[in-house]
Amino acid sequence: MSSNSPDYSLEIMKEPPAELIDPEKSESPCCPDSTDDNPFKIPTPPSITSLPSKTQPMSPEYALKHSLPGHTAGVTSVKFSPEGKYVASASADWSLKQWDLETASLIQSMTGHDHGINDVTWEPAGDMLASCSDDKTVRLWDVRSGRCQSTLKGHDGFTFACRFHPQGKLLASTSFDETVRLWDIRTGRTLKTVQAHLDPISSVDFNRDGSLFVTSSFDGLVRIWDSTTCQVLKTLIDDDNTPVGHVRFAPNGKYVLSSTMNNTLKLWNFQKPKCLRSYRGHKNETLCLTSNFSVTSGTWIVSGSEDMSLCIWNLQNKELVQKVDTKGDKVLCTDCHPTANLIVSGSLQNNHEVKIWESTGQ
Q: Virtual CA dihedral for 57, 263, 120, 316, nearest 10 degrees?
């Protein structure tokens, strides 16, 4: 990891729950404090059975299930595989690791980057990983062999985040060179370079059908882009232009969740645009912390925290329903399992373990 290496960053549940609480009923123009009980319905995949709001548990009661040692430096990104059988982790120790979730064991380590790795993401079919690094490259990996299939070069700064298009043939990557690159993974060529922000770009995510992608930046902006034309459609901005460390689409594609470095998460309707909910109680002032939607044991917002905790909020009423003591782990990255009541986390310090947390809430 270079001495000028940035603080680390880090994706979204692919499918939505049966019910969420519609924040649209609150008409206050900026992050209302009022709550309501008006649900909206969106399709439910057969593999997920979500609780309606009236039966949602008071707390998911997550507790440590497994600790997976192996990395020797900060764990910068963790992701469940699309079908939920595996976990991929990336680290400042220049390695990727693939873990078997059922046996809580290491399958393989993948090396090839020559600086710390900032992000890892699964190809939608689960056959490939992409990673990005301070060495300014993006690498594609065959998860069966553990070998690097290709190295994508073109960024002029640290590559910081990457995400596959839902159809799997396109990859988006962001960089400290203030651009987003869209790559054809079949040829390894850049299809489009987007001058997206005026400061380093911290994250990128596609919506469910891949028609849009969203970016966040240290310039304090969140931007929504048309994936075909690469034209900016909306820009979300707060008055104070606080750096945004992470952003992702909600499961139904109607909203985005942003993590700003002023100890706040915000849920936006990007069509209006309007901030609908804000979530506080964690510490996030210096690092790019991942935030997620959990939809398997209720509807929660999940984030790590710089105060050595894992924080979980009720999506509807913004209540911090659980603050898990992580025993010295400054939790940098998290992900939520697609069907089970599990969270995976990685930390910047302590013993650099990947940890699996399970909900016991009823």
A: 30
Where b means 16+ CB within 10 Å and e means fewer, 104-131 reads eeeeeebebbebbbbbbbbbbeeebbbb
Task: Name the maximum alpha-carbon separation found in the chain.
Answer: 53
SS3 355: strand
- Distance, CA of 340 to CA of 312 (rounded, Å): 16
Question: Which among 149, 104, 153 is positioned nearest to 129, based on CA atoms?
Answer: 149
Beta strands across the sheet bearing 331-336: 62-68, 354-359, 342-347, 331-336
302 and 343 Cβ atoms separated by less than 8 Å: yes
Q: What is the pLDDT of residues 146-163, one digit of tens each?
A: 999 999 999 999 999 999
Whether the CB-CB separation of 128 and 143 falls below 8 Å is answered with yes
Q: How many CA atoms lie within 13 A of 227 on its CB side?
A: 20
**19-33, 184-198, 228-242 — most confident range:** 184-198
For residues 119 and 91, what is the distance between their CA atoms, to the nearest angstrom? Answer: 8
DSSP string of 32-52, one letter each residue: -------EEE----TT--PPP
Residue 247's H or E segment, with its range, is strand 244-249
